[in-house]
Amino acid sequence: MAAPLVLVILVAVTVRAVLYRSSLAAFISERVEVASPLNAWKRVVEGLALLDLGVSPYSGAIFHETPLIIYLFHFLIEYAELVFMITDVLTAIALYLAIQDFNKVVFKKQKLLIELDKYAPDVAELIRTPMEMHYIPLKVALFYLLNPYTVMSCVAKSTCTINNTVIAFFILATIKGSAFLSAVFLALATYQSLYPLTLFAPALLYLLQRQFIPVKLKSKSFWLYTMQYAALYLCSLVVIICLSFFLLNSWDFIPSVYGFILSVPDLTPNIGLFWYFFAEMFEHFSLFFVCVFQINVFFYTIPLAVKLKEHPVFFMFVQIAIISIFKSYPTVGDIALYMAFLPVWSHLYRYPAHLRLFLCLPPTGVLPHSRTLFDKARWDRGHACFEVRIVFTILGKWTTLRNMQSLGYMGWVGKVPWMRSDFKDDSY
Amino acid sequence: MPDIFSLFQDQAEQFFKSGHTNNWAVLVCTSRFWFNYRHVANTLSVYRSVKRLGIPDSHIVLMLADDMACNPRNPKPATVFSHKNMELNVYGDDVEVDYRSYEVTVENFLRVLTGRIPPGTPRSKRLLSDDRSNILIYMTGHGGNGFLKFQDSEEITNVELADAFEQMWQKRRYNELLFIIDTCQGASMYERFYSPNIMALASSQVGEDSLSHQPDLGIGVHLMDRYTFYVLEFLEEIHPASQTNMNDLFQVCPKSLCVSTPGHRTDLFQRDPQNVLITDFFGSVRKVEITAETISLDPNLAAFESKPPKDELAAEPLKYAEQLPVAQIIHQKPKQKDWHPPGGFILGLWALIIMVFFKTYGIKHMKHIF
């Protein structure tokens, strides 16, 4: 499978290189859908310039990147384009390897369940064969690399790509079963943007599953493993944060990065939900609503953990989708990451859910136009932008929920009576 | 010969006897909020005319809420128009507003008039008039019988205003004062004046409303009031050398055009309005007469001979630029110190990375290296 992957990578790199040289690069970098205050390249350059002038880059509200990014780009700023292309490629390779391993695990589990005769007869069409699963990792890499969203993100040199790389490596480490590496990468991802904290739960569930530790609240081994993993994660996070202190000898980066993510002071229109709401809010209520909106991201973790404890990787996918929809400054790069996972569950698409996926596309087309409407036709058109984003959000959620439903259908068909095909529903 | 001298002497004395030597203007718009656009436009139009006729910004105290030009509801930002079809932008680039926004209060207005201003107030906010100053006071906004509303929160009554003018008279802060008011029931505001040398004009009598002139469909509000509109039309024809007098100003805006009846009061004024030039108040006309004769202003002074000032011989003509070594300064660039991450950080980071690497892949690889 290496050769087609290399081919895909070459095509992707070519596309990006071509776009870098064209005039579209400047145009794309300016779009708010692609570059948010957290990850715009312009701000990275500004921060590094401030540093060269002897001023802390965190003074003023321009720069919201972490010190490790400062360190990375201090030496690599001339090769920025190359760095972003390499990070995209690394993400794709990481996803490829992760999904390859995941498929092996899934296939083994499926084989086991078939032999134990746990599936109902009419689920035959959902059983996956090695043939069709063979191409899924390639499709994932393809989906990620050639997704216009990823390409735009890369061409705009948004550090969202670096975030995606770290998350991809985290997923790879989790699926390979290494708790230590998974904790380290999760700490890095959380350190950069706060929200991957919620990925702790699916990772934990997957690792428990891998170690064959049942998820029961009374089980001692469950708690032991959880504590170990949590300790690894927290220690790495603390170590990384303390190390960042030593870069600039100040704790300025904490309010600039995490304070900014949590308190959402910048209300430039983007594809998220925060700005429209907070632009017209009285100061008195803003703290309350900021808390409500932020809790919204973290809120789904526990119910989903309870529901999807048998499918932790699907849980991870849903969680990434939730993060990318509800985070305070989403960009298309975040969406690209979760869209990359869609081929993994392609067997579920024989259900009408996939139609709704394509309904996602028209709002995507309208998004840039709605920004123009907002800019040119004054504030009262702003609600149209918001409606477009709501549609986008709802469709995103709808797709994931339908995916979940379909997945559930597959798992539960044997168990729930009224889902069995031979059940006569006269009594209803 | 002595007759000619005394003739010139008389002329010179005449020159210094008549009226005023400087002009001031206090222009007050007492309203704020978007729908009171016309009051700001009124005041700014008068400001423009007064500047055009020669009164400099240093002699104009302009009090405006100044919330029109940059109002979010203004479809033409940074402009305030005073004619329909947006012919004339009275805001422009060189408006100097002395009291803006919440500083336009009754207290500040009275302090400006009476001169009782806190010590730190800048010159632009002071009315530094003397007993040879002719002052034009123009007020516009919403008014009633005996009062004028300031910014929706307070009022000034006609009694207060009359007392303020009396204070000005007693402190010799004006030579002659022209008071123009364009509000509803404006005549009530000058009823109570009792100080000499005040002439007053108002846009409407007690019981009448002053009406606005034109709404503009592009901006969405009324742009000017009728009385001020016609006063300005009248002022457009005035130039610094015109000889038009006050009687013509009283005829401006008859009831047929203004719907309200403008009023005026001249009983306190010592000169006949016929002899008062418009430019005595609206312009700042410097009296200049050219003569080739020497006139001694004081006969006793003729004894004093003015000595030519001693020429202080400078050693060398000192030029400012030569005192600074310019050439040296130009070529001196600030050294850009590049920032480097501290050594401790790099060490720590790479130590961590190596630790993670070896933890993952096992110590056995280290044995291969060593």
Automatic annotation (TrEMBL), chain A:
Compartments annotated for it: namely: Endoplasmic reticulum membrane
Q: What's the superkingdom here?
A: Eukaryota
What pathway or pathways are given for this protein in its record? Glycolipid biosynthesis; glycosylphosphatidylinositol-anchor biosynthesis
Residue ranges spanning the membrane: these are 68-99, 166-187, 193-209, 230-251, 257-278, 285-306
> Can you name a GO cellular component term?
GPI-anchor transamidase complex
Q: Which family does it belong to?
A: Belongs to the PIGU family.
The protein's name is Phosphatidylinositol glycan anchor biosynthesis class U
Q: Provide the species name.
A: Apteryx owenii
**Lineage of source species:** Eukaryota, Metazoa, Chordata, Craniata, Vertebrata
From TrEMBL, chain B:
GO BP, one annotated term: GPI anchor biosynthetic process
Signal sequence interval, chain numbering: none
Under the heading Pfam families, the entry gives: Peptidase_C13 (PF01650)
User: What are the catalytic residues?
Assistant: H142, C184 (nucleophile)
The alphabetical list of record keywords is:
GPI-anchor biosynthesis, Membrane, Signal, Transmembrane, Transmembrane helix
Molecular function per GO: GPI-anchor transamidase activity
Q: One GO CC term of this entry?
A: GPI-anchor transamidase complex
Pathway, per Swiss-Prot/TrEMBL? Glycolipid biosynthesis; glycosylphosphatidylinositol-anchor biosynthesis
- InterPro entries recorded: GPI_transamidase (IPR028361), Peptidase_C13 (IPR001096)
For this protein, the record's Gene3D superfamilies field holds: 3.40.50.1460
Write out the transmembrane intervals. Answer: 339-358
The cross-references to PANTHER family, in alphabetical order and at most eight, read:
GPI-ANCHOR TRANSAMIDASE
UniProt subunit comment: Heteropentamer. Part of the GPI-anchor transamidase complex, consisting of PIGK, PIGT, PIGS, PIGU and GAA1. Interacts with GPAA1. Interacts with PIGT; this interaction, via a disulfide link, stabilizes the expression of GAA1 and PIGK and links them to PIGS.
- Per the similarity annotation, which family is this? Belongs to the peptidase C13 family.
Q: What is the name listed in the Swiss-Prot or TrEMBL entry for this protein?
A: GPI-anchor transamidase
